[in-house]
User: What shape does this take?
Amino acid sequence: MSLNKKATIAVSAVLVSSALLSGCGLFGGEEKEKIDPPSEMSINNEDANVETEETTGEESGAADEAAETTTIPTELYLIDNNGYVVSQTLDLPSTNSVAKQALEYLVVDGKVTELLPNNFRAVLPADTKMTVDVKDKVAHVDFSKEFAEYNPEDEARILQSVTWTLTQFDEIEQVKLSINGNAIKEMPVNGTPIGEEVSRSIGINYDNSVVTDITNTKPVTVYYMGGEEDAKYFVPVTKRVSNNVDNNVTAIIDELGNPSLGSKLSAVLPSEVALLGEPKVEDGTITLDFDESIFSSGEENVINENVLKVLALSLTEQAEVESVAVTVNGEADLLDEDGEKLEPVSRPESVNTGSY
Assistant: This one.
């Protein structure tokens, strides 16, 4: 598992090979071939100044061929057929402006069209153009007038998609929006307030179905399973829990086993699983001690792979958590589904990869 909390911008321009891209599924390949030296990619659209040397025709042809086969795995927050905003990791062309490119691949009838997974659609209105300038961890995004031409019911989804797509990059923590150079403090169609800038604190795929007093609650984001039987993927959902809950981790574990009725999402963590004692965080690793109901069905000492993944995805949304260690009844002598000794699990670089 990767130790990166978010996707890094210092990416390598590598030739795509079957060995590199052979991992498919919800997370895809977790180990990537390292090359020397890594080439630094800029997220700033204004920094795309690349000096080139004169080459012979033969060298130029080789360079063109290499350019056509180099890609950057990028998370695009698209909309599925149930209306959820969901990350899909796609291999996009190598570029010096990865943040701007990520937004360009969110545009309806645009570059993403031939790459769209089944049952997913793009987010931004057709023909939307944008510039992206990143300063002091803030991405300043200036959209063309087409940005305001969306259906009202998609307003929250668009805001979430743009924000979560851009904040996958380490160099971006907040997003500031403008249209034709004019800063906006609310979304242009339904007027959703956004203030000076937005971050992941706005949440995603809100679920307030069981909340009676929202003022006495706080948000936590947990991951469930969505999709069809032959094409499953992880879906982030922001839920509200009581302000009286001292420990967000305990609240997250409780919510992981309880997707809302009628949500078309399923829990990976069994609802009967119980924590034994208070979770402990040390050097970025949180240790969770569960009862035996966390074991894979019929397999003593074995923890299901997807259980580990939803724990890592959900808990690393907490700022102080970088990886998750699991014990059962205080014992750490556990195995993963490959029969290997269970090690602390961190958030993967890429989520929801694979073919559909």
